[in-house]
Design brief:
3-stranded antiparallel sheet; mainly alpha; elongated
Length: 230
């Protein structure tokens, strides 16, 4: 954070912009403070190409809820990424990715025999980057993923994704939900509407009502609407 603030003169207001600047700082400026000689990643990838590989790695591990790795697990996860990478990247030793992440970029660190993200939010940011870079129609499945993984409600991945590509999230996630929601007509649509919007309803004799939308993207949308009309 200090290096990013020093390099850009401020802390960006949007979270995804901060992490973008933080990665740029760590990939291009980190060793300039220690040495006037320009260094290269062991993988010999440009910071941009390395970020693409790391973004897919983060998305895969985020999906599987993996936040700590031994060397074998890390290599297994990054191998799946490299199987989809350009052919010229196929011969990069997998251990070099780990060395770059821990020694050069300092995005991960080693403690005992385990490796961890220096902060969980880096995994969230790069996951959002990966989701944002995919084909537009794939965002439909991204929305379904967040709605069926309620344990993710308190991280900032979806929030950063929305800030990165708000128009696409609205079109391919929110509009899909709203079209389904508003497709029913008449009194017979009432209960399907309630079941679609809310994960649960609680009421007592004093008519207090407590409810939460089912699915994170729906909760996120409801909060946006609430903020617009309050």
């Amino acid at each position: 954070m200090l290096m990013t603030c020093s390099a850009y003169g401020e802390i960006p207001a949007k979270m995804h912009v901060f992490y973008s600047k933080a990665y740029e700082t760590m990939s291009r400026l980190h060793d300039a403070i220690k040495d006037t000689c320009r260094w290269k990643l062991l993988t010999k990838l440009s910071p941009e190409d390395f970020a693409k590989c790391f973004a897919e790695f983060c998305a895969r591990t985020y999906r599987d809820q993996i936040i700590e790795f031994d060397k074998t697990l890390f290599c297994s996860c990054i191998r799946k990424v490299m199987e989809r990478a350009p052919e010229e990247h196929a011969k990069i030793p997998l251990k070099n990715f780990l060395r770059d992440l821990t020694d050069n970029l300092c995005i991960m660190y080693k403690e005992g025999e385990k490796y961890y993200f220096i902060h969980r939010s880096f995994q969230e940011y790069f996951t959002a980057v990966y989701f944002a870079s995919g084909f537009d129609t794939k965002l439909i499945n991204v929305g379904k993923f967040f709605d069926t993984n309620g344990t993710r409600n308190y991280d900032k991945t979806f929030d950063m994704l929305y800030d990165m590509i708000p128009n696409k999230v609205e079109r391919f996630i929110f509009m899909q939900y709203l079209e389904k929601l508003l497709s029913g007509k008449g009194r017979e649509a009432y209960w399907p509407f309630i079941e679609t919007v809310f994960g649960y309803l609680y009421y007592d004799r004093a008519t207090n009502l407590d409810c939460t939308p089912s699915g994170y993207s729906k909760l996120f949308l409801c909060e946006k609407i609430h903020n617009l009309i309050k």
